[in-house]
Amino acid sequence: MSDTIAAIATGPAPGAIGILRLSGPGAIAAASAVFRPAGGRPLEESRDRQLVYGSLLGADGAVIDQALATISHGPRSYTGEDTAELQCHGSPMVLTLALEALFAQGVRQAGPGEFTRRALLNGRMDLAQAEAVADLIDAETPAAVHQAAGQLSGALSRRVQGIYDALVDLLAHFHAVLDYPDEDIDPFRTDTIRTGLETAKGELSALLATYDRGRYLAGGIPCALIGRPNAGKSSLLNALAGYERAIVTPVPGTTRDTVEARCRLGSVTLRVIDTAGIREAADEVERIGVERSRAALEEAALVLLLCDGSVPFTAEDAALLKEATAHAPTILVWTKGDLPASPLPALDPMPPVVELSAKTGQGLEALAKAVERLFPSGGQGAAGELLTNLRQAQAARRALDSVARAEDSLEAGITPDALLTDVEEALSALGELTGANLREDITARIFARFCVGK
Length: 454
Fold this sequence. Notes:
Layout lengths: L4 E4 L6 E9 L3 H7 L1 E3 L14 E6 L5 E10 L10 E8 L1 H12 L4 E2 L4 H8 L5 H12 L3 H11 L2 H25 L10 H19 L2 H9 L1 E7 L5 H9 L17 E7 L2 E7 L9 H16 L2 E7 L6 H11 L4 E6 L17 E3 L8 H11 L15 H22 L4 H19 L7 H10 L3
Helix pairs in contact: 4-5, 6-7, 6-14, 6-15, 7-13, 13-14
């Protein structure tokens, strides 16, 4: 990467502070050309990460703002390249003029995520850490922030590295015994392989089990609102979203398609899907809407079954409740609490029940607590050690499957040299999980562990 990039790092709206960032071989020189330090000493002669006060210049050399600047020489920078940062007032016009002045110095506009991509390519972070940058930006709850920050610091990568190292040790021990028979090395025994494989299998299973929690933290819990027509589903969606996301009318069947919104409820983030009322369809359009409602139900990790609390509980409501609980944890939401209420049904078993009014907001706090009990912010896995996306989960699954095949081969009496091929496949999958180059010279590990000082 021989070019130099720049971008405005703050939002497009006017604000107190505006920031421009540069990275590449010409970053420091370009920043120096558009920044005049008050002390007279050129910016490029300042110390790394030292803030310097001075004037920000436009492409014509005229002063456009009073600003602060800092530089960092690679590889000790975010991207691993020479970088610079200009901090001025958050006027969109000032930032635009400053960016144009940088373009006049031969700098080009950075693409989306290009600073982080350069950090990845230059070895400043691995793929799991790069993905954590996006998760941190999108985080909407304290738990999501802690998870993303931990993953960005390398917590997941270190957990994967520990599993990887143990499997490499198995391979190294086998090759040491096979290739260096004259060395005083403990024999490679079947029980050694079995113990190593059992440990790796357990750790990979535990890692894979974190996926649901991790993806819910990063992307929100998929939550389906279901119920008969006119049960208050769209009203609840609007109340959770904080704006009129869905059309609400007294006419049953107003919602004909699924409507989705990302909502914060208590300490959790929900990806709420408002569905068409589930009933016998009156026309083709409604039939398609009902089919999509059932598809949303099948994909949901949480179901809110809404029942109109102003009318008696029906056999149709009971059938929907049975269908919902067969798919996911379900909360029975007794709606329209601002109207005279019908008695709650006596059900066995009785699901969690929340009485609320989307019109007045009564009961929303109780709903938040009910959801938090089903999806607590705590749980297994230290911050940063959870799998948060499908790519990571698929790599962990391939590693686990490879270890399981090696274990089955061992019990079937297959020779170690054949079953260790599966171990190598597990190592390859673990390398894909973080995107790091985890492959290492087995010979180097042999000498480091078994032959040094012999």
